Write the structure tokens for this entry.
Amino acid sequence: MIIWIGIQLTFGVINPFYVVASDSMVPKLEVGDFVVINHNVIFDQLKVGNIIVFKEPVPDQGQEP
């Protein structure tokens, strides 16, 4: 439990572990590759060539999707 909380604090997200599901990043990432994302990166520090992950927004309760 302590390790899991440490991982969440370090990466700034509840679950930083993902598996690449499409071939949109080939040849850098292959389908099935395991990646760990970090949400603690300041937008202004992103550089050309960085790999970023987009999270689909979840509509608020009562709003239509």
